[in-house]
Specification:
about 190 residues; single chain; mainly alpha; 6 helices
């Protein structure tokens, strides 16, 4: 969850971890209960990642990049689409007929978002931001992921300051629920 380095290195490592979980899901047969466990794990990672990006990365994009507002708005909309899919998946077991369809939609949405960030947003940010600012953002993102929610909350605010104020409390409740239910534990 916290890897070190600047914000781009941190988030790129998250992307690789999510892709690794997607690969494990795809390798399992349809209906396998382990697919649901992995879906819960990937959801937890994606939500923490998204919350941290919305709190720190996208405000930096707005500040440092020409056209940053439109770019950040598009990225937040991508997050909203994925979060709605994750919310639908939350209510499905692996043997639910909708599970495979929703999982395929989620993987497609996330893979497209990752490609866009890594090929467009990250290079532009690396060029526009001084290295010390990128390192500082990396530290902030790592701290935010530690207290971020772990479950989808599609109606929660996704821009500062409201998201920064509410995410830690929501995260605490989510982590308590996860602990009590065993959600997100490797099987």
């Amino acid at each position: 969850m916290g890897h070190g380095g600047n914000v781009i290195q941190e988030l790129t490592t998250d992307h690789r971890e999510v892709e690794e979980i997607f690969g494990r899901i795809e390798a399992l047969p349809s209906g396998s209960a382990e697919r649901k466990d992995l879906c819960d794990q990937v959801t937890m990672e994606l939500i923490r990642h998204s919350v941290a990006e919305e709190a720190y990365l996208y405000p930096a994009v707005r500040e440092h990049l020409t056209g940053g507002d439109a770019l950040a708005d598009k990225e937040i909309e991508d997050h909203s689409k994925a979060e709605r899919i994750m919310k639908d998946l939350e209510g499905c077991q692996a043997d639910d007929p909708r599970f495979d369809t929703l999982m395929t939609q989620l993987m497609s949405e996330i893979r497209s978002h990752v490609t866009d960030e890594e090929q467009n947003l990250f290079p532009r940010l690396a060029e526009a931001c001084p290295e010390d600012a990128l390192m500082d953002l990396g530290d902030k993102v790592r701290r935010a992921k530690k207290t971020a929610p772990t479950r989808p909350h599609p109606s929660a605010p996704d821009t500062p300051p409201a998201n920064k104020l509410l995410a830690p409390g929501t995260g605490m409740v989510d982590r308590l629920r996860d602990m009590l239910s065993g959600r997100g534990k490797e099987s």
